[in-house]
Write a structure and sequence with these properties.
Elements: H1 4-15, H2 20-27, H3 31-43, E1 47-52, E2 60-65, H4 67-70, H5 76-91, H6 94-113, H7 123-136, E3 140-146, E4 149-156, H8 160-165, H9 170-181, E5 186-189, E6 198-202
Antiparallel strand pairs: 1-2, 3-4, 4-6, 5-6
Helix pairs in contact: 1-3, 2-3, 6-9, 7-9
């Protein structure tokens, strides 16, 4: 790692929770420069902060990596996950593995459905909710409508590293999207197959009042 941004990320990885001063001392730059990098990392969803009491006076801010930030680094837990999935695949038939990941997507959708009011929402409103929901899970999602077909583009996925060895993990995001939309979707492109995005389509979707 060589860039200042990467040094800030690595410091947060190794020290877990740091103040602006901690980061400035570790990286060797001014606190103002650190704050600039931290603001960018927070905007990218790689870092976040909490307030912490430290003696008398005002609480101070401490910064730490999000799950998405942790995914920037090779780690033992990732290798353990891949090995665990490999053991499961050697023990269970392929349909069972796919069913497990599909069930995980179902369970996540149920968790969110309990918090969201999805009844009577248009497909566009549901797509906006999907975008927000999946961003909290570490995905980057956009959608567009062309010729009565909705295209859902997934630019990044928190399970990408695992998916390289075990593509069944893709059933999680796919099932979650389908359940929130309450309609089937079709995956037409995949990052794992060399495409720029994972793309899902919803064809012949019912028009809403906002459609021409």
């Amino acid at each position: 790692m060589s860039s200042t941004r990467e040094k800030v990320l690595k410091t947060l990885l190794t020290r877990h929770r740091c103040t602006i001063k901690d980061l400035a001392d570790a990286v060797g730059i001014s606190p103002i420069s650190v704050r600039h990098h931290i603001n960018k990392l927070e905007a990218d969803g790689l870092a976040t902060s909490d307030t912490e009491r430290h003696g008398v006076g005002r609480p101070r801010y401490v910064y730490y990596l999000t799950e998405k930030g942790m995914e920037q680094f090779p780690s033992r837990y990732l290798r353990l996950t891949i090995k665990l999935l490999q053991q499961l695949k050697e023990t269970l038939p392929k349909p069972m593995m796919e069913k497990i990941f599909t069930q995980m997507g179902d369970d996540m959708a149920l968790d969110y459905a309990a918090e969201l009011e999805l009844d009577d929402l248009s497909i566009e409103e549901r797509l906006d909710i999907i975008k927000d929901v999946l961003e909290t899970e570490g995905f980057t999602i956009n959608w567009k409508l062309e010729d009565d077909v909705y295209y859902i583009q997934e630019a990044s996925c928190p399970y990408h590293r695992v998916g390289e060895s075990h593509p069944e993990v893709c059933f999680i995001g796919e099932t979650l999207i389908s359940n929130v939309l309450s309609m089937p979707i079709e995956r037409t492109k995949s990052i794992l197959e060399g495409d720029a995005y994972c793309t899902y389509t919803v064809s012949n979707a019912p028009k809403t009042e906002s459609d021409p």
